[in-house]
Amino acid sequence: MHPVGWAAGAGIAIFYCVFSASLQFLFYYRKAASAASWKTQSGSGRSRLGGAAAVPWLPALDALRFAADARAKRQPWHWLLSSVNLALASAAAALTVDAIATGRSRVYLDWPADWSTARCVGTAAGHALFIICLHQLQEYWWHRLMHLPWFYKTFHKLHHAYKSPEPFDDMYINPLEAVGYYIILYSPPFTIRMHWTAFAVYMAVMGTAGVLDHSGIRLCIPGLYTTVDHDRHHQLFNVNYAFPFPWLDWLHGTAWTEPKEIPGENRIVVAAPSRGRFRRGGLRGQSPARRRSTASQSRRAAVGPAGSVSSGR
Ligand SMILES: [Zn+2]
Ligand SMILES: [Zn+2]
Prior knowledge:
Helix content is 53%, strand content 4%. The protein is mainly alpha-helical. The chain has a two-stranded parallel sheet with strand order 1-2. A two-stranded antiparallel sheet has the order 3-4. Residues 159, 214, 230, 234 line the site of one zinc ion (ZN).
């Protein structure tokens, strides 16, 4: 293994643990009293706010009965599955970067000598954007596949155990399903010719968004990205399959539209589904009774106390 491969594998694990623990400490512990201002589902009674976030929780350490308070609100085998998936992610990163460093991928390490800096930056940005779009397309359909009844019951149901995900919950996923995500994530260097900086930018975006999507912390880049999107997928189950970016949900009509208040009326209504969401999205193919039930769950979730829904299982 090339030393850069080892560094990439260790780097992924360290980045994940330090970033997740920092979010947990800075928001769930330090800002526990003002959770309503930043928490996506601030009414959830199962949150690990306050004391539960006082001790940094790391998946493997839970096996040693460390941080018992934090463990109390997690699924019984969360520590084991998270550790296995984190090891898989690190191994995938290490092997991919090793292949890049030893010339066994389609990634090149040097720019042509006669290219200007602007041309190099523009090319890297274009390649990064292209593989992000490619990733979004593959991940969207992989996720939709996981919501078909057999796949959901066999694999994906585990990940949906958390209706209001918080730091470290993203790795609670069936390892076989996770392997599918990692194949999608790490395939571009073997299929697309690009400079290594484009792959580095792509990994930085996906790694950061993967943690933020399950952080339970409301963050938004208007028109481009919001952590609320994937949080709504966990809350409402059959909307917002795309992550981190909403483009594929917009195209397929599966995007969730936030409820809007009507001025002058003391009530909240559910906005019209974007591009026929319920007809063309997750409810298509379900029985009429199931459709009524799921749609009413979504409406209750939109107008009721946040985090009170137990849908999709
Ligand atoms: Zn899902
Ligand atoms: Zn998720």
